[in-house]
Structures are given as structure tokens and as C-alpha cells.
Write a structure and sequence with these properties.
With 429 residues, this protein is mostly helical. It contains 16 helices and no strands. Helix 11 packs antiparallel against helix 16. The radius of gyration is 20 Å and the shape is globular. It starts with 15 loop residues before the first helix and ends in a 20-residue tail after the last helix.
Length: 429
């Protein structure tokens, strides 16, 4: 049995613990993403049922991503100590509780609290990136991380498409909309329990075995190297991820409402088009990781940084076009444009993350991942404001993303082999 990280990504293989883990870990993140944003495409119905105002919806959006910030930091550390396998199983079991129980919410306050609790499962992303990094060699880590992250994020697209159909089916059985959206959330809860079993049964922490089997827990690993908090590279990547993944989870939250309110679509149609945005993850994030690896092999980390700055710039420009779209056709076309570069930026960011500090991959992944949610939380305040329309919010975000892309461009990374560690990045005067 091969106990070394793989240097090739065999997408259609389930042989070996590396590829079993690869497929189960992206599926775990997919299911968590499905549950995390399962309520988003049903918000038109929930808004009417609970009598929610625009500021209250904004608070719910903020709550859904804010709890993930702290959770990702904690989960990153737990991956370093418990191992990704047990961390994933425990997160799935605990996270399924608010997913199952959110149907008990009958007013704004209780719904907000449940949304806050559900947001914790967004930390599953850190486990996926950490676990994938364990299973693949340096030259392929960026691609492998991008594929697992992208296919996991695909859950945001599928849930936008599928949850309205589940809702409609439940209504078709004679239940009222008041009951149907509540019962719909039982589906992702059950999915999470199934994946918890698969994760426990069929994965290992490393190609050589679980942490306890190889003696990795305790001792030297019990002390966190907090010095990485002084490394500019970590914060630059966190800022970049705030612009791409932060915008992604924001769009997953508001897209259905935007299409209903701006283009007068039905909830099911709005969910379909919002789902198309998420479906771009089936290839776009992986594309970002693949290109990052190829550029890194040729031009080193500096090349990876320039790629990240470029796709962020294009994402921002696409958002500006989307904000100006006056027709549904133009809105969909521009959405696909900025979605492509946004998701490539996700992959390009995590094409760099595993090389920042190889002894604290979980903590670095957690900080950068938390940066993504911090961006989503900050953007949520724009959509909460009664003085700013959704269209204006998209425009402002586009400008902010472009500014951050410039910061990434002028952050200096050393040219060299991918296996080399980045120099401390500095902002040029």
C-alpha cells in the first residue's frame, strides 16, 4: 500500500486511501455547503412567512457567515491536533443539530440564532483543504486543493437549484409553505449524518495512517506556532480570499432575492439562475488551481501571486458589469463572467496556502479561510443598508475587489521553485 502523498491526481479513481479521502472530503464540504446555504433560495418564502425586513435579512446574511470566521480558526487548529478525520466527523455530527432544528424558528430572533449556529459548518472547508494537502505532493497540491474546494463549493449551486424543488415537492404533498421550508432542511441534515459515517469509516488522517497510529499527536504538535500571525503573506492571502470566497458566499445568500426583486422571477426560476453561479465551481476553481500550479512550476511563487492579482482584477471588472445589467440576459452573462474569475481566484489563493508554513498548514488554512468569511460578513452590511440598493452594493464590491487586486499585484513574492518557501511579502512603497 502506498503510504506517500500522491504526485498525480487520478480523478476517477477510488483506489488507495489518498483518492478515497480526496473524494470523501470534497463530498463532505459539498454536503456542508448544501446545508449551510439551504435556506438561501427559500428566503423569498421565509421573508413572507416571518415578515422580515431588509435590515433583518441583512443581519441574517451576516450571521450566516460570521460564526464561520471563529469556527474556521478553531477547526484549523483542531486539524493540527486531532487530525482532519475526527475533526470532520465531530463537526458533521454537531453541525447537523441546528440544520435539523431550524424549522422550529417562528420569528426573526430565533431564525437569526439558528442561522448563526448553522454557519459553523462552513468551517468544513478548512478540513477539506487540510486533508487534501496531506494526501498530495507539493507539485500537485494546488490543483488537488482547488478541485476539492471547487466541487465542495458546488454545493452552493446545487442547493440553490434543488432546495426550491424539495420545497415544491413538499407543498405538492399538501403542506403549506409555512411548513414546507422547515421540513426541507431535514434533507441536508440527513445527508450530513451519512457523510459523517463515510468519513469515519473510509478515510485516514495521512497516507501513512491516523495521527494516533503514527504518533503525531501530543508533544511537539501541542504547541501552536503563533509567529505566523506576524507573516504578511498570511494576511495578504486572507484579504484576497475575502474578495473572492467572501463575494461567493454573499452572492449565494442574496442571488435568489436579487433575481426575484429585480427581474420579477419566481422563486424556483431565481433559484435555478442562482444555482448556475454555483455550478461554475465544477471546473472554475479547479482551473485556478491548475493554472497556479503550472505557473508556480515555471515562475515560482511570484508567478502565483501575479495570477491571483490578475483574476481578482477581472472579477472586480465583471462585478461592475453585473451591477449595470439592465436585462436578465445581460445579468446572467456578466454573472458567468465574474463567477469564472472569482472561482479561479479561490483556487489560485489556495494554490499558495499550503506553502506558507508547512508545519502549521491547518492554522494558515484556517486564517485564510476565516478571511473569506470576514469578507462575506463585511459585504453583508452593504446588503443590509436601506439606503443602498442591491445593485449599488454589487458596484461598491466590484470597486473594492479591484483595489485589493492592486494590493496583491504589488505584494512581492520570490521567484523560485514551488517547493521553496515564500519570502515575506512586502507592499512596495
Amino acid at each position: 500500500m502506498n503510504q506517500q502523498p500522491l504526485d498525480k491526481l487520478k480523478i476517477f479513481s477510488l483506489s488507495g486511501i489518498q483518492m478515497k479521502t480526496f473524494h470523501i472530503t470534497w463530498l463532505m464540504f459539498f454536503v456542508c455547503f448544501f446545508g449551510w446555504f439551504g435556506l438561501a433560495p427559500l428566503m423569498p418564502t421565509i421573508r413572507a412567512d416571518l415578515g422580515l425586513t431588509k435590515p433583518q435579512i441583512g443581519n441574517i446574511i451576516i450571521a450566516s457567515v460570521s460564526s464561520t470566521i471563529i469556527a474556521r480558526l478553531v477547526i484549523g487548529r483542531l486539524c493540527d491536533t486531532w487530525g482532519p478525520r475526527i475533526t470532520a466527523v465531530r463537526l458533521l455530527l454537531v453541525g447537523s443539530i441546528p440544520v435539523f432544528l431550524v424549522g422550529l424558528a417562528h420569528d426573526y430572533t430565533t431564525f437569526l440564532l439558528f442561522r448563526l449556529a448553522i454557519g459553523v459548518i462552513g468551517a468544513s472547508f478548512v478540513i477539506t483543504q487540510f486533508h487534501t494537502s496531506m494526501m498530495f505532493a507539493a507539485k500537485i497540491k494546488g490543483t488537488a486543493n482547488a478541485v476539492t474546494g471547487g466541487w465542495g463549493n458546488l454545493g452552493g449551486g446545487v442547493t440553490n437549484m434543488v432546495m426550491p424543488l424539495i420545497f415544491a415537492a413538499i407543498v405538492g404533498f399538501g403542506y403549506t409553505p409555512h411548513s414546507a421550508w422547515r421540513l426541507s432542511m431535514i434533507v441536508p441534515g440527513i445527508m450530513m449524518l451519512i457523510i459523517a459515517f463515510l468519513y469515519y469509516r473510509f478515510t485516514k488522517d495521512t497516507p501513512a495512517g491516523n495521527y494516533k497510529e503514527i504518533g503525531r499527536t501530543g508533544g511537539a504538535k501541542s504547541k501552536t506556532d503563533w509567529s505566523i500571525l506576524g507573516d504578511w503573506r498570511v494576511w495578504a492571502l486572507a484579504l484576497a480570499y475575502a474578495m473572492c470566497f467572501g463575494m461567493e458566499i454573499t452572492f449565494d445568500n442574496v442571488a435568489s432575492l436579487h433575481f426575484v426583486d429585480t427581474f420579477k422571477l419566481e422563486q424556483s426560476s431565481a433559484g435555478f439562475w442562482a444555482g448556475i453561479f454555483g455550478f461554475m465551481n465544477i471546473f472554475a476553481r479547479a482551473l485556478g488551481g491548475i493554472v497556479s500550479d503550472k505557473i508556480g512550476n515555471k515562475y515560482g511563487m511570484r508567478g502565483k501571486g501575479l495570477l491571483l492579482g490578475s483574476v481578482l482584477m477581472l472579477e472586480g471588472l465583471g462585478l461592475l458589469v453585473f451591477a449595470q445589467a439592465g436585462t436578465l440576459v445581460l445579468a446572467i452573462a456578466s454573472m458567468l463572467l465574474f463567477a469564472l474569475f472569482l472561482k479561479m481566484a479561490n483556487g489560485a489563493t489556495y494554490g499558495i496556502v499550503p506553502f506558507i508554513n508547512e508545519k502549521n498548514v491547518g492554522l494558515v488554512a484556517g486564517i485564510v479561510g476565516a478571511g473569506g468569511n470576514l469578507g462575506g460578513m463585511a459585504f453583508g452590511f452593504l446588503f443590509k443598508s436601506e439606503s443602498i440598493t442591491y445593485i449599488e452594493a454589487f458596484r461598491y464590491i466590484g470597486i473594492i475587489v479591484i483595489v485589493v487586486s492592486v494590493i496583491i499585484f504589488i505584494s512581492r513574492f520570490r521567484k523560485g521553485e514551488v517547493k521553496e518557501e515564500l519570502e515575506p511579502a512586502v507592499v512596495a512603497a
